[in-house]
Amino acid sequence: MPVLDRFRLDGKLALITGGSRGLGREMALALAEAGADLILVGRDAASLDGTAGAIRDLGRQATTIVADAGVPAECERFCGEVLDKNGPVDILINNVGGRRVNIPTDQFPLETWQQMVDLNLTSVFVCTKLLGGAMVKRGTGGRIINISSINGLVATRKIGGRSYETSKAAVIQFTKAVAADWAPHRITVNAVCPGGFMTEPNIRWSQQNPEVIEAFQEQIPMGEFGQPEDLGPLAVYLASDASRYMTGAVLVIDGGYTLW
C-alpha cells in the first residue's frame, strides 16, 4: 500500500467530545479531510452546527449531539444513544476538558474538585468503557485517542486549579493501562499532550491573567504558542492504519516547553 494511503480514513466513523471548537474542531476537520464521517459532542448547538457544516463542505457526514460530557450521567446517555443508532464507532477521541478555575489548593471546594475531575478524567473513562467496550465486542479493532496535556507531566507556573494537573496525569496512566488490556483486540489507545495552544479558553486566560500567558510563552523554546490546526495531522496519524503498531504512547506537542 502506498504510504500516504495508510493515512486515509474512508469508511470510518469517529466521535469527538468537545468537537465543535478549538482543538476538537481542528481534529474533526482533519479526520474529515482524510475521509472519516464525524459525530461531534459539545455543549453549544450553534458551534456544533458550524463545525458540522464545515465537515459537510468537505463531502463527509456529520452528526451533532448537544451534551455535557463532563457530567457522567449525560456522558452515559449520549454514548448509549450513539451505540443504539450507529453501533460501535471506529475512532474515539476523548478531547473534552479544561482547567476552568484558578483556585489555590488550600481554598479549592470539594464540589468544584469533583466537577473538574469528572470533566477531565471521568468523561474519558465513561466514553472508553462504553464506546471502546463496544469496539472490543465487535472484534475488528479500533482507535482511541485521549487528549491529556503537558500538565499531566509538569505543573504550570503561577496558576491554581491543580485538579487539572492531577486529572490529566491520570488520563496518561489510564491510557497506558487500557492500551495494555486491549492490544490483543487490535484497539490502540494513545495519549496526546498538547502544550500552549491559542484556543478560546487560552485567549480568555490571556485577557484575564496576561502574566500567566506571558510567563508561559517565555518558556517555549520555539517562542510561540501552537495553533489548533497543528494538532490535526497528529490526530489523523493516530486514527489511521499508519499508527497500527503504536499503542500506549504519550505524544507531546508543545514547541519544546517540557524540554526545560
Throw out a few tags for this protein:
260 residues; alpha/beta; Rossmann fold; seven-stranded parallel β-sheet
Descriptive overview:
This protein is of the alpha/beta class. The chain has one domain (3-249): 3-Layer(aba) Sandwich (Rossmann fold), CATH 3.40.50. It has helices spanning 22-33, 45-57, 72-86, 110-138, 163-182, 200-208, 210-218, 232-239, and strands at 13-17, 37-42, 62-66, 91-94, 142-147, 187-194, 250-253. The chain has a seven-stranded parallel sheet, sandwiched between helices. Strand 1 (13-17), helix 1 and strand 2 form a beta-alpha-beta unit. Helix 1 (22-33) crosses helix 8. It is globular and about 45 Å long. It starts with 12 loop residues before the first strand and ends in a 7-residue tail after the last strand.
Number of domains: 1
Tell me the structural class: alpha/beta
- H/E element sequence: EHEHEHEHEHEHHHE
Which stretches of 5+ consecutive residues score pLDDT under 50?
none
Radius of gyration: 17 Å
Architecture blueprint of SSEs:
Blueprint: E1 13-17, H1 22-33, E2 37-42, H2 45-57, E3 62-66, H3 72-86, E4 91-94, H4 110-138, E5 142-147, H5 163-182, E6 187-194, H6 200-208, H7 210-218, H8 232-239, E7 250-253
Parallel strand pairs: 1-2, 1-4, 2-3, 4-5, 5-6, 6-7
Helix pairs in contact: 1-8, 3-4, 4-5, 6-7
Summarize this entry quickly.
The protein has 260 residues and is of the alpha/beta class. Helices cover 44% and strands 15% of the residues.
